[in-house]
# Entry
Amino acid sequence: MELDSALEAPSQEDSSLSEELSHSALGQAFSKILHSLARPEARRGNVKDVVLKDLGDLIEATEFDRLFEGTGARLRGMPETLGQVAKALEKYAAPSKEEEGGGDGHSEAAEKAAQVGLLFLKLLGKVETAKNSLVGPAWQTGLHHLAGPVYIFAITHSLEQPWTTPRSREVAREVLTSLLQVTECGSVAGFLHGENEDEKGRLSVILGLLKPDLNKESWKNNPAIKHVFSWTLQQVTRPWLSQHLERVLPASLVISDDYQTENKILGVHCLHHIVLNVPAADLLQYNRAQVLYHAISNHLYTPEHHLIQAVLPCLLDLFPILEKTLHWKGDGARPTTHCDEVLRLILTHMEPEHRLLLRRTYARNLPAFVNRLGILTVRHLKRLERVIIGYLEVYDGPEEEARLKILETLKLLMQHTWPRVSCRLVVLLKALLKLICDVARDPNLTPESVKSALLQEATDCLILLDRCSQGRVKGLLAKIPQSCEDRKVVNCIRKVQQVSEGAPYDGT
# Structure
């Protein structure tokens, strides 16, 4: 690339280029480089190397005062020109759609990122020098235009992704560290929302830069954009996030509403963060909470355990917000809530489910739903009974996570709905005794600690069942120790009898 007209040095010793460049020539030099970066040929090997080398030489040869100091319309355009160059460099280093899955292309993207990162370090070095030397807002104006593109570049390439390598991640993290140092921010969160109340922060600028690439038609063209948005969103919490709700909510919904499971999960995590960090009043305004509920609950029909695990905790945190608008006057039945709807759907899916990973995911979250509904769980008692008995019968692998969580659910269920438990005494007692016998005689490679935990939880359930049935369990179990030869089973029965007779028991 030829920059002779802009970079010509008339002295024989070719001393310092910064002494020879006029303001207009400097702007022209940056404009030529900007034009070269925008051309498709710039991504080719030789052309790319020449463009980046010329830019690096120009940055090194230009004194900081030429970049950030002076007066006049031409100089005021220099920070904007630098910002445009930074945007072009960030776009140039961004991975393409083909590089999302790795392969041969990702090494080229990482190489470009490392080269661009070094250029950003040079630019930030100039800002640091100007900050230490100049009085006035000139360097701040330059930093304002540079900070957004530099941040997006740093986050794009510092996360462990298919298009990064250890070298590119190292350079990107150096760029991020340098950016925080120049902006005098102690953390990324402080950089985004401001270190104090008087400081505005740069989240608005960054969201503005991301917006063109985050609409429904374009967000998949750059595989890094969703990760940059998600990671940035997670850094901003209460009370700062609410003022950006109109920008972050649509993008999160777009990512969530995708056919790929990994994107659904990423979008749900973004929505969950919004639910946790935006005041309920803001979410209820314009029916946003209902929009969130329908967008998230629709994922319950996708039988992917990772997705279900992301969705259920998010819904549990959304329910209190949705139920703020419900008012029970006490003169009739309590209205059905969104939690009732979701629990009904979960139980419908749990009954026939045979895949262990999904069974564990459902069972893992079931206690929280029983706790959330409390006494109102009686609405779902028949179906819960079938699910609990069915899950207690099935071996769940060495960790026995599903059966342990189902026993925890049963304990909570008996605590919340104890007046309705005695009529189910025989069914629940048979299921618990069968479980105790199965675990005690388990020929599988289940660790002893897991067996002990199962027996402990089952014993606790028997004790609660006895209390809910006014001591009837004790009478039904009275003859078992005389006829049973299994020591573990007998020990469980005796613990129940001891507690029923008033002896202290550490397990309850």
Q: What stands out?
A: The mean pLDDT is 85.
